[in-house]
Amino acid sequence: MDIDRIAVHESVAKACPLEAMVAALQGSDVPVEAVGDDASFDAGDCVVTFSPRDVFLDAAWVHGIRAGYDEFDVAAYETAGTALTNSTGIHGDTVPETVVGYLTAFARRLHVYRDRQGDADWTHEPYEAPFTLTGERVCVVGLGTIGQGVADRAAALGMDVVGVRRSGDPTENVERVYTPDELAAAVGDARFVVLCCPLTEATEGMVDAALLETMRDDGYLVNVARGPVVVEDALLAALDAGAIAGAPLDAHWEEPLPETHPLWDHESAIVTPHVAASTNRYHEDIAALVQENVERATRGESLRNRVA
Known about the structure:
The protein has 9 helices and 12 strands. By secondary structure, the protein is an alpha/beta fold. The protein has 2 domains: 5-90 and 280-298, NAD(P)-binding Rossmann-like Domain (Rossmann fold, 3-Layer(aba) Sandwich), CATH 3.40.50.720; 94-271, NAD(P)-binding Rossmann-like Domain (Rossmann fold), CATH 3.40.50.720. Helix 2 links the parallel strand 4 (61-64) and strand 5. Helix 1 (18-25) packs parallel to helix 9 (282-298) and helix 3 (94-108) crosses helix 5 (145-156).
């Protein structure tokens, strides 16, 4: 595959400054330029983008700057012969660090005190409310790069770590690995259930009312995967009924989350706007991955993270 141009689509601005991404990709023999929706492409182009466009199918290769690629029509790329790669593997620090923040906030009640700060409210939480993470069980659903990073950090905090992965193979810092058909058993004793899995036909709606009922009533559901992995009405009902203690959510069913959505007013929820992977070095991490693949393409090698 010969790459004659790297075209950085303006949609990358949803994740990082467009100019920074263009600058980070400079330095090789391949010219780099920013493009908009009016651009056209040919078999010498690599497109770096946040969002899909039909016209990208005319390029040789499209790189999505997110780990998730469910918005891209994989079958269409395969039919067109256009390579599609994603950015899995670069979020092994950022997202797990965010998850640790969620766990710590709920355990130490930091989110409650932050809310009260604006009212100069010195009220202490009830004696039984705060707890320590040490000795608590966390179930990590999906043990890829992100899930492994969560498991490593949870183990370092002294937590009891179990996980769920398709293969069921053992992994470092996870005491027991369950398969997806054992999901209910995996989450049953966990204080925290952390969703790190991709959105697929198998995982869409995976966390439904029945699964939420198996969770502890003092348990928390953490979603850094995709919104549709969880059945929205079921989660809202569980929060309203106190069937679970809370839910820190970075992935939502509709983004941006509508202003009228009930989650905004839920003290038992922490809502972040899909920023768990955000870092001021994001453009550098993406550029390094793209440049590696440009070199691979030049040598006739397979592309890293190719999904179509």
